[in-house]
Each structure stands twice: as structure tokens, then as C-alpha cells.
Fold this protein.
Amino acid sequence: MADTEQILAKMKASIEAYDSDAAVAAAKEAATAGMDLLVAVEKGFAEPIRALGEAFARMEIFLPQLILAANAMEAGMAVMEEAITAIGGELETKGVVVIGTVEGDIHDIGKTVVAAMLQSNGYQVHDLGVEVPASRFIESAKSLNADVIAMSALLSTTMLYQRDVIELLNNKGLADKYFTIVGGAPVKQAWADEIGADGYASGACEAVKLLDQHREVWAK
Ligand code: B12
């Protein structure tokens, strides 16, 4: 079996080299090596992309480079997502979750990790994609008879749309019908409290714990 550290190094190098083929190859190695897949995502893909995000903020690299790195990460993540989801394939459904990135926000990766992790832990997850307007979160939750609405936002400007979803639920008298959770890099517990979200989690494992722990609140 290939050494875990070597695989993580290959994953990291693929992002830093903006190399989608290498990211896919390294992800396949990780998926078959029996390593902890969430650790692999975090150390192999998320850490280097965040480091590049910081380099972007310092203007050491530019948007086209960040996009290429994100494309490489997305290619690798498709493999990781399938592998993570497969682990939970046999589990019974605990509850139904609709998840999406809010209006005006195209960041996809963290939301997809959370979706895959929830799915692999027995939740039925409907991923609505990115730039999801408030009304669509709610219409989808209704039509899919969801228990949970999960909203991701990566920009301090788009976090505000998480509040819009909750306000729209309140206006429609549906606030008690769905358990709302929020997350994304700029989102904190204090923001969740301020906008009246039912829960906040900082990462994918934490999101699973949050829903598991509050099951008696949201389960119908
Ligand atoms: C990759 C990336 C991109 C890619 C996105 C590709 C894609 N398909 O997703 C591209 C290059 C396209 C991009 C574009 C932009 N980006 Co960008 N991007 C990033 C970067 C580097 C990494 C994000 C990421 O994927 N992280 C890895 C994942 C695994 O982590 P995560 O998203 O945080 O998710 C975890 C948790 O937050 C949590 N979580 C996430 N969602 C949810 C949801 C729920 C319900 C829960 C419970 C938990 C949860 O769990 C996840 C797993 O652990 C960040 C930097 C950063 N530190 O976050 C900047 C960053 C978010 N981007 C930034 C900016 C400014 C932009 C642009 C506006 C740039 C521009 N000038 O055009 C555009 C946005 C356009 C738009 N309208 O959305 C800023 C935001 C600043 C701010 N605070 O507002 C950042 C912080 C970079 C920076 N330092 O300047 N970006």
C-alpha cells in the first residue's frame, strides 16, 4: 500500500501545479489506499487551495491561477466525493437534506464536501448547486419533503442571503417546518445566532454531528 504521506503530498502538489489529471490520479490513490478520506480532502486538497487563496489575497497569484487550482481540486473532488458517498451506501436514511450555495455565490467545493459527508452518514441529500435563490431553497425543501435546509456561503457579501432564506421561511410561516443550518468560511456561530439559523457547523464532520445531535428537534 502506498504511503499515506506520499499520497497527501501528491494531492497537494497537483493543486499547486494546477494539474487536474494529477489531482484525479492522486485522489484515486487515496480512495483505494484505505486512508481516512476526510483527512485526505482536508490535508491533500483543502489546505493547499486555502494557501493559494491567501496568496491570491496578497496578489502573489491572480484569479486565472486560482481558477485553474480550483478546477484541479474539483476534478479530484469528484473522485473523493464518490468514494466518500460509497462508504455510506448501505446505511438507512436518517433524514432529508437540501443543500446549496446561496444566491450570488459560485463557491462549490465546501458545500459538496458537506453534502458527501452527510450522504455517507446516512442522510438523503439533494444538492441544489450554486447561486441558489432563497425561493428555490424553500420550494425544493417543500417538494422533496425535506427535514433540513443547509446553506453555504463563502463571501462576506453573500452570507446575507442566508438571512434572506430564513426571513422568507418566517414570512411564509414555515420556520418551524425545517431545521436550518449555515456554514462556509466567513460564517460563525454568532452569525447563525443573529439570523436565527437553527445550527452552524465549521466543517463537514461537524455538520453530521450537529444534525445527529439535534435529531429529536428536526425529525418529523
Ligand atoms: C477556491 C476558491 C475560489 C474558486 C471557487 C471554485 C469552486 N468551484 O468552488 C474561484 C476561483 C472560482 C473563486 C472565485 C471567487 N472568489 Co474565492 N476562494 C476560493 C478559496 C481559495 C477556497 C474555497 C474552498 O474551496 N475551500 C475548501 C473547502 C473545503 O472549504 P470551505 O469552502 O470553507 O468549506 C468547509 C467549511 O466552511 C464548511 N462549510 C462550507 N459550506 C457549508 C455549509 C454548511 C451548511 C455547513 C454546516 C458547513 C459548511 O465545511 C466545509 C468542509 O470542511 C477561498 C479561500 C478560503 N480560505 O476559503 C477563496 C475566497 C472565499 N474567495 C474570495 C473571493 C473574493 C472570490 C471572488 C469574488 C474573486 C473575484 N474577485 O472574482 C470570486 C467569487 C465569485 C462569486 N460570485 O462567487 C475571498 C472571499 C473574501 C470574503 N470574505 O468575502 C476568499 C476568502 C479569498 C481571499 N482570501 O480573498 N474562489
Notes: The chain has two domains: 4-87, 96-218. The mean pLDDT is 91. Residues 63-87 form the longest helix (25 residues).
